[in-house]
Each structure stands twice: as structure tokens, then as C-alpha cells.
Amino acid sequence: MCRKLNYFLFFVLTLVLTGSLGAGGTDPGTAHLKHLWTFEDGTCNDLLGDADGVFNGENIVVEGGDLVNYPNPTSGTADSWVDLPGEVLELNLYDEIAVAAWFTPNPANSQWETLWFFGNDGNGAGTGSDGFAFQPRRADNKARTWVTTGSWSGPYSNEDGVDDVGNNYNNEGELYYVVCQINNLADQGQLMMYHNADLIGTTDLKSDVAAGKDNQIENISQNFARFCHSCYSGDQPWLGNLHEIMIFDKALSDDEVMYLFDAGVNGFPPITSVKNKDAKLPQAFSLSQNYPNPFNPTTNITFTLKQKEAVKLTVHDVMGKQVATLLDETRNPGEYTIAFDAKGLISGVYYYRLQTKGQEATKKMVLMR
Fold first, then answer.
1. 338-342 own/partner pairs: CB under 8 Å, 24+ apart
2. Angle value at C-alpha 42, between 40 and 43, nearest 5 degrees
3. Could you give the CA distance from residue 196 to residue 261 in angstroms, rounded to a whole number?
């Protein structure tokens, strides 16, 4: 954990010195965050869904809150990775996809190493590969995210990808943040890659039915998903520390990508909004008293949901007039804490109301300036 903290402190200091900290951004919210692996609980469990990871090999472990892949001490090469259930992820059912990851590489990477790969690698041959992947280190000295799907017969030539030409994200001790995503513009998929919140490039996902090329989200195979694995036979797994990885079922805006960058490793979502799926879920709908109360000008409001449902949290004055909407979206079961900033409101009594389709609760709070 100390190693990870040092990376993060260096990252924050760099932002402060360059004037980038707090540069803005838009909170993407958690409604579209479908899968999250932080490794903070010592496992490769998916904290939001059921796509838990399984270790494959002896040299990949969770250590200090990171997924760490070491070289085999006997051979000196990489031979381990994490398998995930592609049939649980079901990425081919999404209209859009965004995969965001924080990682620090081992400079021993030297071939076509892949940080994550969702799909099917054609049994290692590349033929008939239907997948979406990100390679931070390639032998051609560039980073690349790519999509390849369709009933084609030749390896590699079917790919549509975005390259960071001249850059492979493989510097020792350096912390990297990358977002790879597919948006849907007029039914035409477009692949995009961001590095440290900067847009690297975009490319259209193309189809050529006659040639067996049909690079669209719905054709991404559910065969498997992997972290730190090679794509094809002969390629070695990726070595290094994977700090965090998340999957959204939408493409993120530039401002949302920046928001996640500013939040840092494990900085999004707020810890109170994510519960390990193995933890005991709330047995009832509830709304807690805000804290602190009285407050000036900020306070926190905590509530629990028994099931996934649309929820709305609003604030009203003593006359019943709504003065703020704090939340209006669908949330998974769990406990949530929402901050309320009463800036611009006068001292007095206010009421906060939590509403779902079948239940409602209201409590009183006091703003005292």
C-alpha cells in the first residue's frame, strides 16, 4: 500500500505544480458504472457486479491493494493472469462502453502485452478473434486499443484501433490513467482512447460483410475476459501493478474523463457508494438523520436501498418549495451518503425527502449560519 500511496502523492503533487488539480470535470455518476475492481479487499472481486476474477498461475497476486503480476522467478518471463467470466460481463449487450484503468508497468514488458482483453482470441491463433483490448506496451513501440470482430480468417488485419504513436506506457514507476471507449453515433461505433485525460485519437469501427469484417459492440464475444493476458499465442502476459479498473455502459464525455483523472486512484466513486457484493445488503429502505445537524453550510445525508430502483433525493423549505435536487437516478441496493451544500440559502429549517416508486421518507434539518 505504501508503494501505491507514494505513486498517488507524486501524482497529486505533479497536478498541483502544473496547476491541473481541480481543473474541473463532470461527475459521471454511478448509474452507468457496471463493474469495478479495486483489489483493495485483497481479492479480484468485482465490487459492483458478479464478474469476479480467478487467478491463473502462481505469479499474479493481490498485494498492497494492487493486482501485481510478477515474472516467473525460474524462467524470468510472464506466465500468469486473471480470468473473468465474459458471459457475466455481456459487453455485447451494451450500446456504448468505457473502460478506465490506472496502472504502473514493469519495464520488463517488451512484446505485445495486453492489460485487458474482453472477447475471444481464436484459441490463441487470432483467427476469428472477436474482442476489445488495450495494449499499453507493444513491440512496435506504441500503445494501442483495438476492436476486431467478424467471421474473418486472417489474424490482425481486421482490427480497427487507436494508437499512441511513439509512446508505450512502460516507464518504470510511472502511474498511467487510460480510458478506452466505444460510442454510438447514428449506429456507427467510434473507438476512442484517452491518456491522462487527453484525447489521443478516434477511429470509426468499420464493417465489410463481404470480407467478414463487422467491428461493432454487439459482435464482441462473451467467450472470456482477462486482465494482464496476452492476446494471441506467443505473446506474453503484461507485467506490473493494475491499481483499478472500471467499466461503464456508456461512453464518457471529455469532462467526465477529466473528473475521474482528477479523482485519482480509487477516488471514484465515493467509498460510501460502493459496497462489496458479498457484504450483507440492507434489509429495508431507510433515511438517516443528516450529520452534522445543525450545519453550516454543508452536511451529509445517508440512506439505504433494499433493491435496485429509481431514487430521488430533494430538499425543501418550510413552505414546501423545492430548493435543491441532490439525486435523481437509478441506484443499486446498498448504503449511500450524499453531501448537501446549502450555499445561497438562508438560515432556518429545511426538509429532505427520499422517494422511490413505492416508498418515501422525510426528515428535518437546520441550517444555522
1. 338/300, 338/301, 338/302, 338/303, 338/313, 339/298, 339/299, 339/300, 339/301, 340/290, 340/298, 340/299, 340/300, 340/301, 340/315, 341/297, 341/298, 342/295, 342/296, 342/297, 342/298, 342/299, 342/367
2. 105
3. 7
Give the pairing type, strands 348-355 and 360-367: antiparallel
Residue 129 has pLDDT above 80, yes or no: no
Output the 3-class SS for 258-275. Answer: HHHHHHCCCCCCCHHHCC
Domain 286-367: give its CATH code.
Answer: 2.60.40.1930
Q: What is the pLDDT of residues 25-71, one digit of tens each?
A: 899 988 899 999 999 888 999 998 889 999 999 999 999 889 999 99
The pTM is what?
A: 0.69
* Distance from C-alpha of 287 to C-alpha of 273, rounded to nearest angstrom: 15
Give 245-288 pLDDT, tens digit per residue: 999 999 999 999 999 999 899 889 875 556 544 444 556 788 99
Q: How far apart are CA 231 and CA 115, in angstroms?
A: 10
**Where in the chain are all domains bearing CATH 2.60.120.200?**
2-273
> Where in the chain is CATH 2.60.40.1930?
286-367
Return the CATH number of the domain spanning residue range 2-273: 2.60.120.200
Nearest to 260 by CA among 98, 53, 47: 98
Cell numbers 483467427 correspond to what residue? 127
Phi and psi at 171, nearest 5°, equal -75, 135
Q: How many CA atoms lie within 13 A of 169 on its CB side?
A: 29
Nearest CA among 225, 274, 342, 197 for reference residue 30 = 274
What number of residues does the chain have? 369
Pairing of strands 198-204, 66-69: unpaired
CB atoms closer than 10 angstroms to residue 51: 21
